Automatic annotation (TrEMBL):
It comes from Lysobacter cavernae. This is Very short patch repair endonuclease. Belongs to the vsr family. It comes from the Bacteria. Its EC number is 3.1.-.-. Keywords: DNA damage, DNA repair, Endonuclease, Hydrolase, Nuclease. It is an enzyme of class 3 (hydrolase). Gene3D superfamilies: VSR Endonuclease. GO terms for molecular function: endonuclease activity.
Amino acid sequence: MADIVSPETRSRMMSTIRGRDTKPEMLVRRHLHGLGFRYRLSPRDLPGRPDLVLPRHKVAIFVHGCFWHGHDGCRFATVPATRTEFWTAKIAANKARDAAAEEKLRALGWRLAIVWECALRLDQSRTLQRVADFIVSGEPTIEMAV
């Protein structure tokens, strides 16, 4: 299947996609702030630069886009029909980097919450409540996906 836009247009479109302050990340941030939780954003001193860090609770939160982080079995994580080898390699590298960062954070004693974009898209209120519940629970890890 051929792309419906020129390579130059596609390149320009892809270059505008942000890595910070995404809609899913902003949803989580607003919800937690509204509940009284205070956090730091993308601290440079932690492996993988989690999207949110709650030092008081020793919780690191990653808000992953299903496409960019290769969410297995998710309908939002399809590999593009053009340049398949490039995208497969890129997403595989992202997944490996994510796994390494998570392992390092756990070794440093951080609790991890991984919130997938699909969970926020398909069941936003339940997902946001689960994030808040996890923070105060003391559990070591949670992954929220649909």
